[in-house]
């Protein structure tokens, strides 16, 4: 093999390694940031551990896992319409919302947990203007 062919082959190999390395880093970073938290990759939203949310969110999550009883029957567990479009688009009935009580509030307040049919959990503290994906294992 001539030295020109060896240099050309080496350059092609080097370019391939650089390209694979570039895209591989993106794939690795995405898998590290979203892990196996349902809804994280699909939504593009930041992930927050349940333990990092207000204590009332953890209590609401416990109620969800137990199936209630909920403090606002008829409201908690109702279909969340996602009219704001902050969560991934899904058919009506896919998401359900639950009140996260706010100390000092006389009504339901602005905090909610929203669950998806594929075990996603989202939290909002500003009445659906923004969300984070909740890592319920954390």
From TrEMBL:
Claim: Hydrolase is one of the keywords in the record: yes
Keyword Hydrolase: yes
Source domain of life: Bacteria
InterPro entries named in the record: N1-like (IPR000026), Ribonuclease/ribotoxin (IPR016191)
This protein's name: Ribonuclease domain-containing protein
Record Gene3D superfamilies: Microbial ribonucleases
Keywords associated with the record: Hydrolase, Nuclease
């Amino acid at each position: 093999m001539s030295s020109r062919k060896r240099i050309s082959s080496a350059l092609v190999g080097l370019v391939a390694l650089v390209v694979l390395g570039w895209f591989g880093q993106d794939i690795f970073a995405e898998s590290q940031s979203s892990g196996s938290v349902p809804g994280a990759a699909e939504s593009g939203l930041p992930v927050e551990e349940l333990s990092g949310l207000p204590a009332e969110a953890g209590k609401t999550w416990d109620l969800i896992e137990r199936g209630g009883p909920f403090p606002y029957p008829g409201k908690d567990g109702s279909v969340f319409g996602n009219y704001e479009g902050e969560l991934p688009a899904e058919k009506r009935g896919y998401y359900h919302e639950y009140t996260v009580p706010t100390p000092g509030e006389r009504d339901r307040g602005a905090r909610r947990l929203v669950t998806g049919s594929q075990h996603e959990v989202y939290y909002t503290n500003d009445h659906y203007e923004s969300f984070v994906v909740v890592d319920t294992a954390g």
